[in-house]
Amino acid sequence: MRRQQGKRLDDRLNDRWFRLDEALVNAFVERWRPETHTFHMPFGECTITLQDVAYQLGLPVDGRYVSGCLLEFQIYIQGGRSAWVWFQELLGVTPPPSQVQKYAVNCSLFQETFGECPDGADDETLFADKSGNRVHIRWLPYVARLEEMGTYSWGSAALAWLYRCMCRVANRHVVKLAGPLQLLQSWIFWRFPLFRPAGYETFSWPLASRWSGYNPSGSEKGPRVQMWRLRIDRLQDREFIWMPYSSPDVLQVVHPEALEHRHMALWRSVTSLIYFAVIEWHQIDRVLPQFGGVQPVRVPP
């Protein structure tokens, strides 16, 4: 799902973005615990929630779940048509074998077939695989029903995918991290002032666009990872902003729809996040101070 330019809550991210600080992200992912879906810090647990997705990316967090099925990855359930026949009907081309890897099509095919890409088309995607340059044919049903795109909970899908990617990389045999990592990095900058780059004080919507133009240091990655690890080890409770979105400066740029009660109720819910076969738990009961609450003794995961 590519970021789209626009002002509606379901249209979202503008074409301004920032580069990923791989050393910082790596140091934080080392603190991720798959059992609880939280970062274990010296001062306690914290995590990225649906509230963060709504504010940072401006994506809707309610609506229909993002899922579907291609029977045996070849025959789509409705109508019994071959997925590749359906691909031809919808897009007017049949991808050659050289452009297909399993059931994902190279983005280069779309670039070559449909000419010049729109502005921002080469940016990162929210639901990328590790290569970042392939699109799975499971998205065909959504291409066929573009008018319904705004009815889905893209925010919960993005968060489920980020959770799953961070859980996977906790396995020592996995060396590459996929997912909407700009969400993770923007969350770090908003929540941890000590790690925030200087000179980015202008707020805009969505809030992740605050870091537009950010370019991390190009120095060697290894020593920078060690530096971030040491800084994380020394963190104290007062160096984490539990409620960064309550300030007047933030509230004046937030889209009014994001502040509706129906969204706030979902932010505070312990529920499942769904993205196709990915199902992850939204365990805000372990990080209640992020919502102004008092944290009781945590139960075992």
Automatic annotation (TrEMBL):
InterPro entries: AminoTfrase-like_pln_mobile, MAIN-like
Gene Ontology BP term (one): meristem maintenance
Aminotransferase-like plant mobile domain segment(s): 20-68, 125-297
Source organism of the structure: Arachis hypogaea (Peanut)
Name of protein: Aminotransferase-like plant mobile domain-containing protein
Lineage of source species: Eukaryota, Viridiplantae, Streptophyta, Embryophyta, Tracheophyta
Domain of life where this protein originates: Eukaryota
